[in-house]
Amino acid sequence: MKSFIPCLLALNLVIACGDDDGDTTDTTDDMRVPETDMATPTLGDVTVLLEPEDTITEGLEPGDEGESIQDGWTVTFDRYLVAIGDVDIHLSTDETVDAEAPDVFVADLTQISAAGEALWTFDGIRPGRWEVGYSTPGAGDGSMRHETVSEADYDEMVAQDWTYLIEATMTHPSGQSCPPASLANVGGATPNGNTNSRDEDCYDNATITFTWGVTAETVFGPCQIDEMFGFAVPEGGSQTVALTIHGDHIFFNGFPEGDEGGIMRLAQWIADSDLDLDGDVTREELESIAPSDLAELDERYALGAPPIELMEMWDYVIGQLKTQGHFQGEGECAFDGMAHDH
Q1: Of the four listed, 179, 312, 317, 332, which is most buried by Cβ atoms within 10 Å?
Q2: Residue 38 forms part of a structural domain
Q3: pTM of the prediction?
């Protein structure tokens, strides 16, 4: 981890900042106010964690409410790599008092404990309330490999400039795929006798996998928790905060503007995207499917106000990944300058 000492304006006291090697040249002697004239606050420090939501580390179970998958599928993640960093903070009362931890790490969230991993630190932080933002860029833009990621996976992330590499398995005891008839390439597969709402044939398909490398570069922030922006640093004390990545947004039934409590999590749309019934849903398949092609995207889905235009279901994946950066667990972060409240 690297420590970053911000340029701080403490009343009329100016503290000069050094370069990355820690060298500091002080040119402010003539501007300093004698210590007898005003008190200088005792500076603190901040540790920033990367934290996975338990939907990533524990998966999602079928059920009727909460973070359960409501159409019977069970989901487990084998890999959930993310490129994340560029942590910026600034004093709420003075945006010119700021600091940056520019390091971007590629980490596998399935291998990070629920307690989080300390990846960024800020030293010499003035007491007060600080606002925070961060980015999930492409891995090809100067990232570093975290120890949870293999060399091969990291090299692929960098070469493709992906933000995410997600490998998952979906299972259902009576699982089936009902692909759009006009797009399906089912070969000699035999229908199971069921049909979807458009009377298109369904086929037994109890296990579905997908491995998606996705570029979904996003800037998150300012972030808030309990309607309070950022975090407070006590005088001379320490503070620890967490950047939280959720794992269930690709199953959301839309792009909500309200509280997440009204969201349903559904996985059948992914199963129905298995056009060749080989048990694996690929990017190429999703790129060939428009939202209007899927009978599964019915009245339960609210597709208004997406982060990007939805021309194909691959856009749906990108759009949902651009909404899943959070703060301190369930705290909200605006993304790419858009308000975000779920």
Answers
A1: 179
A2: no
A3: 0.86
* Single-letter residue type at 201: D
Taking phi over 0 as left and psi of -120 to 50 as alpha, with beta for the rest, 230 belongs to left
Q: Is residue 321 part of a domain?
A: yes
Under 8 Å between Cβ of 99 and 18: no
Q: Are 166 and 55 in contact (CB under 8 A)?
A: no
Structural domain that includes position 165: 46-117+126-335
pLDDT digits (tens, 9 = 90+) for 70-110: 999 999 999 999 999 999 999 999 999 999 999 999 999 99
Could you report the per-residue pLDDT of 237-260, keeping only the tens digit for each?
Answer: 999 999 999 999 999 999 865 455
Q: What are phi and psi of 247, to 5 degrees?
A: -120, 5
Cα-Cα-Cα-Cα dihedral sign, residues 189, 192, 184, 309: negative
Domain membership of residue 31 (yes or no) is no
Q: What is d(CA 301, CA 264) in angstroms, rounded to the nearest whole number?
A: 9
Residue 26 lies in a domain: no
Q: How many domains does the chain have?
A: 1
Please name the amino acid found at residue 136: T
